[in-house]
Design goal:
The complex is a heterodimer of chains A (264) and B (322).
Chain A lengths: L1 E14 L7 E14 L3 E5 L6 H8 L7 E6 L2 E2 L5 H10 E4 L13 H12 L4 H14 L16 H13 L5 E5 L7 H18 L2 E6 L2 H7 L2 E6 L2 E6 L2 H6 L6 H8 L8
Parallel strand pairs in A: 3-8, 3-9, 6-7, 7-8
Antiparallel strand pairs in A: 1-2, 1-4, 4-5, 9-10
Helix pairs in contact in A: 3-4, 3-5, 4-5
Chain B lengths: L1 H31 L2 H34 L1 H4 L31 H37 L1 H15 L3 H12 L3 H28 L2 H8 L4 H37 L11 H7 L9 H18 L1 H9 L13
Helix pairs in contact in B: 2-4, 2-11, 4-5, 4-7, 4-9, 5-7, 6-7, 7-9, 9-10, 9-11, 9-12, 10-11
Classes of the chains: A alpha/beta (264), B mainly alpha (322).
């Protein structure tokens, strides 16, 4: 069964104010996307193609203008009360810019503990124990618990964000360009951590990225976006890697832009 | 008219030219000198700031003690008149002399600090409360609520504050409570607007999105992530504005619209001294100096407070990596 399904989703943003002419810009244009439970789906696309808008719709942070976002077969807009909470609990996110995604006044344990505080009645000592466990899970040490965000490097803080996403043991985590802001070494370390987590927890991942190499490394299947809709599916990645004759122009241009692994 | 314009232009031109000159000079010296001398030239400024901060803390503490313990400190009753002893010069009995009704000036100053500080404190708290509530609602809810609230703010901001305060006092009548109300009503809009923009800025940040995904309700997100940083900035803003508020209170009292005689208040005392301004100028100068010192002392801690409340300046950030 599909975990999240987007059906004919339209979404655009208004530009211009009271006196100017209002224009509708960007966004999504009849997007269909199915994310099955389990595994890792990659969503590939160049900047401005609507990847992040898709992410926000999937998380229920925004509503589509037209079409439906279905969570386990039910429209997100129909979910109320306990069902809504269950949905919230089950879908978490990791953003691109880790320093922007955490409150600069919160220590690591508070950042990680925030979702727990929202969903469980839990005392502070208990919370710290849980936070310590989560920190270890993402490869940080217990002693990092009382650090403030500016005391972490970007890669470390991204791990804290991953720990926060894992805190509620959700069924689904969205990674919105989650490694794009990291250097090559940290990218590969974080990706290895993610693959390890995927194996051990069985969580469904959706990985949004513009970087083909990242997606080839982590995802089982890739959807390519262009101009607010899916232009190409690749369910079997081995096929994608071997076949030189990829017909999709969006994918071809992204593949052509990948830098060579060795400097010349 | 044309003459004035020409003068104005000339002045502005000269000023900008000076500015550019200084800028170039600073650039040159920075380039030519190694970094350690830069540190040396920087250090006295920091210690000077510390000295100013210490001095302002001292003045404020002294004022606070004066205000709180006025009944015990002041040598005389501030409203007790003795006409045979009017306009007495400074002596052992009356350290700062007496005014035109023979009241002890020192006692009046001490009791006056109570009213000045009390009214300014009350005004600051009320403005912050109104500004914070209205600005937060406007910024966080957004949409039509925001538009309506902002138009109301703009309506208040179109009037010059002092004129509007005069008008309000004309309507409400004179007296301390009405002065406080008038100043709050004329000033909250600025605070509401600034707070709205702070809240709006935070509300659109990634960490608020993350908090929503983490399942926080709007109220808990607001309290956890928005209220504290906004309040700390608001405190800085209000600290910088305290002196201005105090001048407002004293100014209205000086015009005879605020605190009424014989209540001792500094602005009121300056007003009383108008008749004797040529024969006994110290009657106006002494309370004037008090207002000046207090306003100055209120203005200094703002910057220091900002540094204290900024999390990234708390320890590691001090090395100045960025």
């Amino acid at each position: 069964m599909s975990f999240i399904e987007l059906k004919g989703v339209q979404k655009s943003y208004r530009q211009g104010g009271l006196l100017g002419i209002r224009r509708r810009i960007g966004g999504l244009n009849g997007l269909d996307l199915k994310i099955m439970s389990g595994g890792c789906r990659g969503l590939l696309g160049a900047s401005g193609c609507g990847k992040s808008t898709t992410g926000r719709l999937i998380l229920g942070l925004e509503q589509p203008d037209e079409g439906h976002v279905l969570y386990k077969g039910r429209d997100l807009r129909e979910l109320k009360g306990a069902e809504r909470r269950e949905f919230r609990r089950n879908s978490q996110v990791v953003f691109q810019n880790s320093h922007g995604a955490v409150n600069p006044r919160f220590q690591a344990w508070k950042i990680i503990g925030e979702p727990l505080m929202n969903f469980e009645k839990i005392s502070i000592p208990e919370l710290r124990v849980r936070a310590a466990g989560l920190l270890k899970k993402v490869g940080l040490s217990e002693t990092d618990m009382d650090k403030l965000p500016h005391q972490f490097s970007g890669g470390e803080l991204q791990r804290v964000c991953i720990a926060r996403a894992l805190a509620l043991s959700p069924e689904f985590i969205l990674f919105d360009e989650a490694v794009s802001a990291l250097d090559m070494l940290n990218q590969s370390l974080v990706l290895e951590l993610l693959m390890e987590l995927k194996r051990s927890t069985g969580t469904t991942f959706l990985f949004i990225s513009h970087d083909m190499r990242v997606l080839l490394k982590v995802s089982d299947s890739i959807a390519v976006m262009e101009g607010g809709r899916i232009s190409f599916y690749a369910d079997d990645l081995s096929e994608l890697e071997t076949s030189g004759a990829v017909s999709d122009p969006a994918l071809r241009s992204l593949a052509g832009a990948v830098l060579p692994p060795e400097p010349l | 008219m044309a003459d004035m314009n020409a003068h104005g232009d000339g002045h502005a031109h000269g000023h900008s030219h000076d500015g550019a000159c200084c800028h170039n000079h600073a650039k040159n010296t920075r380039k030519s000198r190694p970094s350690d001398t830069d540190k040396k030239t920087f250090r006295p400024a920091v210690s000077g700031q510390k000295a100013a901060l210490g001095l302002s803390a001292f003045v404020l503490t002294a004022l606070l003690i004066m205000a709180v313990f006025a009944p015990w400190i002041s040598p005389y009753d501030p409203v007790e008149q003795s006409l045979e002893n009017r306009l007495a010069p400074a002596s052992a009995e009356h350290i700062l002399g007496t005014d035109h009704l023979g009241r002890d000036i020192l006692s009046r100053l001490i009791w006056g600090s109570r009213i000045s500080l009390g009214s300014v404190g009350l005004i600051a708290v009320l403005i912050m409360a109104v500004g914070f509530t209205v600005g937060s609602l406007s910024g966080y809810i957004g949409g039509k609520t925001d538009a309506v609230i902002m138009r109301v703010c703009e309506a208040f901001m179109t009037f010059p504050t002092f004129i509007l305060a005069l008008f309000l006092i004309g309507m409400f009548g004179t007296g301390m409570t009405n002065v406080v109300l008038a100043i709050v009503i004329t000033h909250w809009a600025w605070y509401a607007r600034i707070i709205r923009s702070m809240v709006l800025n935070l509300r659109n940040s990634d960490y608020i999105l993350a908090a929503r995904v983490a399942g926080g309700s709007h109220i808990s997100i607001f309290l956890r992530h928005i209220a504290l940083p906004v309040l700390s900035q608001l405190t800085i803003l209000a600290t910088l504005d305290l002196g201005h508020m105090m001048l407002h209170v004293s100014g209205l009292s000086f015009l005879g619209l605020g605190i009424q005689p014989p209540t001792p208040e500094w602005g009121c005392m300056i007003n009383d001294a108008r008749q004797q301004i040529w024969s006994n100028p110290e009657l106006a100068i002494i309370p004037g100096v008090m207002i000046f010192l207090t306003v100055l002392a209120f203005n200094i801690p703002g910057d220091a407070l900002r540094d204290m409340l900024d999390p990234s300046l708390s320890d590691a950030g001090k090395d100045g990596c960025c």
